[in-house]
Amino acid sequence: MTSSEQPRRRGRPTAPLLSQEKITSAAVELIELRGYSALTMAALARQLGVAPSALYNHVSNKHQLLRWIQDHVNREIDCSDFEVRPWDAALEAWAHSYRDAYARHSLLVPVIAVTPIAGSPHTVAMYEKVAAGLRAGGWPDDQVMDVVVAVESFVLGSALDAAAPDDIFDVPADQAPVLARVVGARVGRDAARAAFDLGLATVLAGLRDRLRALTP
Amino acid sequence: MTSSEQPRRRGRPTAPLLSQEKITSAAVELIELRGYSALTMAALARQLGVAPSALYNHVSNKHQLLRWIQDHVNREIDCSDFEVRPWDAALEAWAHSYRDAYARHSLLVPVIAVTPIAGSPHTVAMYEKVAAGLRAGGWPDDQVMDVVVAVESFVLGSALDAAAPDDIFDVPADQAPVLARVVGARVGRDAARAAFDLGLATVLAGLRDRLRALTP
DNA sequence: CAGGCTAAATGAGCGACATTCATATTGTCT
DNA sequence: AGACAATATGAATGTCGCTCATTTAGCCTG
């Protein structure tokens, strides 16, 4: 069934076949269809009906492509609550939305954590809203980023954890009796979700206390 | 200076040149010397004075090698406090030690988070101590792992954050004025460390509250 | 309107890796 | 002594990201 693929035209086409938007969308589609391991430059080019080398006229390398994808994913994160609800409720909703997005893109987590945000407009917009919300909620300037980073660290760690297999802590009871026991005590639930919920509730409670202590 | 490398003997040597211990140590040494990007199977073999293919008689693939390294790194994590101090103090010390270890091995973080611990003896031993400490501290069986995973998520997220460049949040003030302002308000400090300390203190405060509410 | 510059595509091919395989050698077990 | 298993070598393979020379077409300028 090798279909009749007429050899494509060389040279500059009438209208450009590629753009940042098209490349990013195709990459995200590919990831959602077949996972991150399927995201190769060759596969992406194929998806776009283009030769692999053509991509490099638009994106400098695969790492930059991942940053585009990251910014695309960040667009899905909901931080509208910061404009209409108290800081702690908004932070909770943001954290949930953030975790869910990256549970589906856990391979991006190590990329996010290390990449300057400046080149990513949606990402910058997100942090701007979060920072404004915390400041409006009474947090002092010099602690806002610490709060953001702390919560974000927990969120990204949890996103990684969400990608783990359910039996990650399974262990023979004779090797580690206490561990086997407490691991057994949480079967049935969505373990990663439960840990995230407990952790987030804990963090929020701690933050409320801390802010209260700051502003008597 | 291409030194006189006599062609090495083929076939089985009198004493095995390789073992899990030797391979892992050499890999860790290589990483500490030249970073993770230098950890290739060829470079590792070279470090051990052996042909690359010889490694595959001992380790099934690079991913398994990373798991050996992970277990090796976990051996450095200090969790002795769980046997001699209150659960919250021990948890704090553990988290610090854990973060510091993986700040130096952040490339392993996505591997840890997803790999079953069963094949890693030091890792199992670590969790056993932590679980026993929390249980002894009064935490109910069905919440111990949630606490462990929540703290671990924060720790691993923070370890990733520690590997980020200092200027990761730098942004033109006209694009995101509030963000620029709060980012500017924390210059001078070790930002990642400050966020970790704030977050850990917050989590511990929240956990103490929670346990107190459970056991009146 | 001719000539040149630039954008954007093609396809060949390179180098870095992880991994596999046929083969050789040697210690150990029967 | 002979068979087998363990452990090394080195050649080869396949996948990838990426580069480069080349081609083509639109646009700008004199």
List its salient traits.
Arc Repressor Mutant, subunit A; 10 helices; homodimer; HTH_TetR (chains A, B); mainly alpha; Tetracycline Repressor, domain 2; repressor (chains A, B); DNA-binding (chains A, B); disordered N terminus; DNA-binding
Structure description:
The structure is a homodimer of 216-residue chains. With 216 residues, the first copy, chain A, is mainly α. Chain A has 2 domains: 20-59, Arc Repressor Mutant, subunit A (Orthogonal Bundle), CATH 1.10.10; 76-214, Tetracycline Repressor, domain 2 (Orthogonal Bundle), CATH 1.10.357. Chain A is 60% helix and 0% strand. Chain A has 10 helices and no strands. The first copy, chain A, has helices spanning 20-34, 41-47, 52-55, 62-74, 87-103, 109-112, 121-136, 141-162, 177-184, 191-214. In chain A, α5 (87-103) packs parallel to α8 (141-162) and α7 (121-136) crosses α8 (141-162). The longest helix of chain A has 24 residues, at 191-214. Chain A is flat and about 70 Å long. The N and C termini of chain A lie far apart (75 Å). The model of chain A is unreliable at 1-5 (pLDDT under 50). Chains A and B meet through α7, α8, α9 and α10 of A and α6, α7, α8 and α9 of B. Chain A binds a DNA duplex (30 and 30 nucleotides) through residues 7-14, 16-18, 40-42, 50-54, 56-58, 61-62.
